[in-house]
Specification:
six-stranded antiparallel sheet; 3 helices
Length: 125
């Protein structure tokens, strides 16, 4: 399967500064699988200076951005999201899988726009 797995989370503790590679994830705001062009929106945010790659580990790919630049897009529908989660025949799914994108609207609406979030991206190819 070609695509990406996204999670967008608050930072554990204080989210008033950009996350660094050692930042721990806090409350999850959204998760989804994206199609092959799923990184386009992140690359656009980086070009606009609204998102910063976290240099350090490489995989998963991690970025940080303020909530104001990310959450409105997610509330409209996670960018390039697959309607249903898919898994290859060789993948082991632990726990109950989600049927599709999981967006915690209540958490998103409660998140301050100045909070710096952690966006974690796994290559599912």
């Amino acid at each position: 399967m070609l695509g990406w797995y996204f999670s967008v989370c608050r930072q554990k503790g204080d989210g008033t500064q950009p996350a660094d590679p050692h930042a721990e994830q806090g409350e999850c705001l959204a998760i989804w699988q994206a199609r092959i062009r799923g990184l386009d929106w992140i690359e656009e945010l980086i070009e606009l200076g609204q998102c910063e790659p976290m240099h350090g580990y490489g995989y998963p790919y991690r970025t940080t951005a303020q909530a104001r630049f990310v959450l409105p897009q997610i509330l409209k529908g996670p960018p390039h999201a697959r309607e249903h989660f898919t898994a290859a025949s060789y993948e082991i799914v632990v726990g109950k899988p989600h049927d599709g994108p999981l967006v915690h609207k209540d958490r998103i609406l409660a998140c301050p726009p100045d909070d710096w979030l952690i966006i974690q991206i796994f290559d599912e190819s």
